[in-house]
Amino acid sequence: MIAASVSEVEIVEGEETYVIGSLYQAGNVEGTEEIELTATHNETGETHDVGSQEATLSPGYYHLGAINITFQPDETGHYDLELGDRNAGWVDVDESTVEASIIDVDGHSVNFDPDTETEQTYASEDVTVTIEIDADLDLETVDVLVSSLETSYVRSFEASHESGETWTATVSPEDIADDGRYEVSVVAVDQVGTVGTDTEDRTLVIDRDAPRLSSTLVNVDGESATVVVESDKPLVDAPEVEGVFTDPDGSTESDSVSVLPVGGSSTHFTGTFATGETGSYEITSTGTDRAGNEGTDTTSVTVDTRFTLGDGVIEIDDTGTTIEFEVADEADEAVLSQDLFASLSETTANANLDDGQLGVGFITAELDNFLEYYLEQGTVESAEISMAIDGGELPGSASPDEVELHYYDDADGAWEPVAGSAVEIDSNGDPFLTASVSGFSTYGAFVPDAEPPVVDVESPVDGATVESTDGAVTIEFSYDDDRSGIDVGSVTLDVDGEDVTDHDETTITSTRTEHVLTVEPGVSYTATLTVSDDAGNVATEETSFEVESDSGSESDSSAPSSDSGSAGGSGSSDRSDTVDTETEETATPTEPPVPDTPTETPVPDTPGTTPTESTPSSSTDEDAGTDDSIPGFGLLAAVLALLVTAGVAVRTRR
What pTM was computed for the model? Predict the structure, then answer.
């Protein structure tokens, strides 16, 4: 071995470097010799046999770059290399790095949330997550994790490489069990198991429910009226409002109404439009929320600008909803015949409902000031509300006879029950909610929810003896509430008194809870689940089971990964166990092919002498053993050999 060098002196764990050596046959016996590469770790002092290569060379001949051996260290540190009996240099091996950054989460909109005092990204459809990753080595996996901030639930979405350092992943709400607030993060793992992570600053809000809009008419007179539109969720822009007026003679006239936010609100809007005389209005409001969901409300309004107490009743023709005034017997005829105005709005939605409140119909009365006065001083003794109940709006198994009347207290911002309300059936068999009232505001038909959710034990059933071949058992509960719905943030799970709600092996959605429990043979366990609905009703269910003692399985110290949770589509999976953050073994790349032995080229002893294949070097074995110079190697040829070796050494790594 006359020269040896290494292609790279600084690499990261998992990368390759190459040691190249040049040979000279100084002996006089032709044969094959095995040349070995060793690496000595500077800190541990351990010497490793890296590899070897056979070489055959006739006496007096040179082979530049004859040896090419790959070194791929699996441990960081400083290594001294030796090829054959010659120092081949050194290599410093550092840990690989993976730097991941989330550049963008592209939802429908980004808006400031006053409750959390942060900006949030809102989406109802696919969200594109763009990531930039600077890594020393090739990446094995890049996954975007979407983790619920309200319960134990994680979904994983595989990212794909676009170009350069850019990767993208598509987060599909279809693959996420429930609406809510989610944290978005990325986990990138390279080929030797080095992990890089990043978390998006903005919370991702998945929202697939359309906004609930309601429209009413106020300040009605013979010339104009104010339309008020409210939404239960912030809208990105003012809603579009269309009004169709139907005259008593059947003729119609339509027009759009421009509404503006009240005080910069994104949920409360008003606008003014010209009114005709007595007639019916159909007001349709359409708005889009921050997540891109479109909500529509159609309100039926009856306006009577010549209403008299003598008439006694104001009615919405489409539904039959009425307000009937009971006038005192001693009322003056002038009062009974006085022209007044009144309007009655009816809709199936209202923006002022809290979670768990089940409002199925609403009316708002706008009365002449004189009517209010007559109610206060007793000329009008009472008013009877008769409100149509639409059975199609009732939730779950609710029946019309359960419906109760409530009124909205503007001062307190709360709904209060109306005493004495009842459900009556008219001559056509249609249900109406009735009550006597002494004042007017917005009234709503509410379905009470006094029943807790229904909880079922899916597995293991209570009292069961189960087999576990892998040291784990999956505990699963399902639940449902057909009225106010499940409050997913209320779900808790404990096993033998230990809270496992936030355990890595627990997955919670609005329909089921799963937990993968590490078990021991012959041991009994009890799992208890507690869940509330949005109305605050609480249900608790438990299951006790025993693990077979003769299952043949050995106790495992950790539960296996579980693909638990809601089933998803392609490109995504539940939980983060699809991302292996442990160091993985990687196959050592195939060593670069060693070229066939080239034609031997004799080199003359003396510079200037013309070489011939029949002219071997005149050096002897004894000379080679005692002389530090290269036997039979002239000065010019020696320099050439070193330059060629160095040139080969700096070839590009594969």
Answer: 0.75
